[in-house]
Amino acid sequence: MAPNEAAGGGKGAPKTKLKLWLRGLPASMTEETARELLETLVPAFTDGNNMDWMRFVAANKRVPTATLYLHLKNEEAVFGVHAKMEGHKVADGKGKEHKVLVEYAPFLKVPRRKAVDKKEGTIEKEASYIAFLEELERRKEVKTESAEAWLERRDAEQKEAAEAAVGVIKVVHTPLLDFMREKKARELRERKKREEERRLKIDSQLEEA
Question: What is the pTM of this model?
């Protein structure tokens, strides 16, 4: 059956039919052998310049033969694939020949490609994340804990346990959260220092006046 005689179209269908349905392929065929078949018979029409989508469906209980769907970029490639593959006989592992049928696919649309998230994988380049990793690495270099640090940690754990017993809301501590809290506190202290210096400068200017 020629492509322009097959099923497809209907209300809202694309004006140019570019999706083909190749059926009747041997049940023993795999996606790899299907690609090899295309490269052998129609390499000029199924390369990156002429084909942008392919789907292979293996034989199953409902459809005992393999199926191949192709979406081509132009009508020349569509007609080229049809001319070369329509009626072509493909032998299976037992030597039995199967006649390939080429038609327009019943549904002419193809799945949309997933949008690329531009933010994906960029956290490693964030300055705050890099600073956190450096701080974490620096802390790892401290191999032993001093007696004073141990006492402070023990007191903090006891205080946390006491607060939990009376229903006090527990503050979550993780290396990243602690780092961000310390950074925010440091920025607040620096801002207050600048404001105090500005105030003193204004007071000094008023006195001189």
Answer: 0.48
